Amino acid sequence: MPVSAEVLTAHQRRVEALRRSYRAIPAGRPVRLAKRTSNLFRPRAAPSTPGLDVTQLSHVLAVDPIALTAEVEGMTTYEDLVDATLAVGCMPLVVPQLRTITIGGAVSGLGIEASSFRNGLPHESVLEMDVLTGAGEVVTACPDGPNADLFEAFPNSYGSLGYATRLVIQLERVHAYVRLRHVPFTQLSGIQDAIGEIVRSRTFEGEDVDFIDGVVFSADEAYLTLGTWADSAPYTSSYTGQQVYYRSLRLRSEDYLTTKDYLWRWDTDWFWCSRAFGVQRPLIRRLWPDSLKRSDVYWKIIRFENQHHWWARLQQRRGEPSQERVVQDVEIPLERTADFLHWFLDTVPIDPVWLCPLVLRDTGTGQRRWPLYPLEPGKTYVNVGFWSTAPILPGREDGDVNRAIEAEVAALGGHKSLYSDAYYDEQTFWGLYGGEAYRTAKRVHDPEGRLPDLYAKAVRRV
């Protein structure tokens, strides 16, 4: 259904309030967002100016289960969007794993999930969007039109070209349940080959595959989880309370979840990162309220530590080595995935790691469409995610592990997401992240440079 006149009027008022917030920032001063939450892992310098108030742009404006579209504001969380779409039997084509990721964040950054091998990345499902640019104007961008350059350069721009105020996205129909099969592998080459065949055929052992991701615990223990839509289930499991989802991969070969619980299966324990807070210990888990077993709660703890370094100082007093944050997602060409995993497991003392295949949609032209994250359409990549810390060994310095990862990813023809620490020199960075297309869009949509550029945000942490 289209957006009602009443809802549209309220939306326009919120957009105008945002524009007033922009105009209130003194001319020549940098512009940034004022947000209470974030899913970024890039510490930033303390702001010297007021931020744009985007908190009110968090509404689902309309959901059309016939046309399979949704119209939403940029700060809408996927948690709220999923609630609205599931209510009418639909979901976004790709639902990132964490509840409080916003749709604007997933489009201007990058999002991925287990449907990405068939649906690509979240920005590929956008039909149209309104963007508050660095010039202070709200413009409409779509694949064909006067702002097509902004539409194509927006993904992976991380707010350095502007902020989405409204998006129209595609949806798909859902079933009530998802049946899971946890398939074990004892060789990394085997899991690589299996991913390739499943992506090509969208089947495994004669059964359809609608979702695929995986977990690598070691070089000789890994699992692919294959999800298939189901209209009925003999039972359902819940991983929002005492049970830990990623541990279930080792304990059972089959499982059933409601669609909603499947979409948020990773959020309860922030994949496996909740173990750093003791939440997976039986006693603590019983005492920790289920309502607080959420990624945004863990993120607040991390933010507190980043500000005050309480735990780091305690570990230092105990004689423990300093730690380097290694929180990254990288896209590796399928045929080099086993090579990267062997290198990583031999080099970086972090496990487990997450696997998620993705294939960008083929535009039919054979050309790359998204210049700031230039993956090849139709080519299979595997997202490898790892989120922990590594000790800073004697004679080494903070950042060395991340630099080694960057070099290995580049050597294998891969790409690295920019939501966390990056160490590239400027020339290398712009060669990897669409410098020419970015500069063109920046000149048009932020001619005075009010928004920090992408290198400043991703590497210099402005």
- Sheet bearing the most strands, described? 8 strands, antiparallel
> Which range does the strand content fall in?
15-25%
Radius of gyration from the alpha-carbon trace, in angstroms? 22 Å
Mean pLDDT: 92
Q: Structural class given helices, strands, pairing? A: alpha+beta
Q: Helical element count?
A: 16
* Helix share bin: 25-40%
Strand line-up in the sheet with most strands:
14-9-13-12-16-17-15-18
Oligomer: single chain
- Looking at CATH, which topology of one domain would you report? Uridine Diphospho-n-acetylenolpyruvylglucosamine Reductase, domain 3
- Described by the principal axes of the CA atoms, the overall outline is globular
Unreliable sequence segments: none
Give me the count of strands: 18
CATH hierarchy, class of one domain: Alpha Beta
Overview of this structure, please?
Strand 12 and strand 13 form a beta hairpin. It is built from 16 helices and 18 strands. An eight-stranded antiparallel sheet has the order 14-9-13-12-16-17-15-18, sandwiched between helices. The longest helix has 19 residues, at 5-23. Among the domains are: 5-174 and 450-458, Uridine Diphospho-n-acetylenolpyruvylglucosamine Reductase, domain 3; 309-423, Alpha-Beta Plaits (2-Layer Sandwich), CATH 3.30.70.2520. It has 462 residues and is of the alpha+beta class. Helix 6 runs antiparallel to helix 12. The chain has helices spanning 5-23, 78-86, 103-108, 116-119, 148-153, 188-201, 245-251, 259-263, 282-287, 295-308, 310-317, 337-347, 400-411, 426-432, 435-445, 454-458; strands at 33-34, 52-53, 60-64, 69-73, 90-92, 126-133, 138-141, 162-173, 177-185, 203-204, 207-208, 211-218, 221-230, 254-258, 323-333, 353-359, 380-391, 415-416.
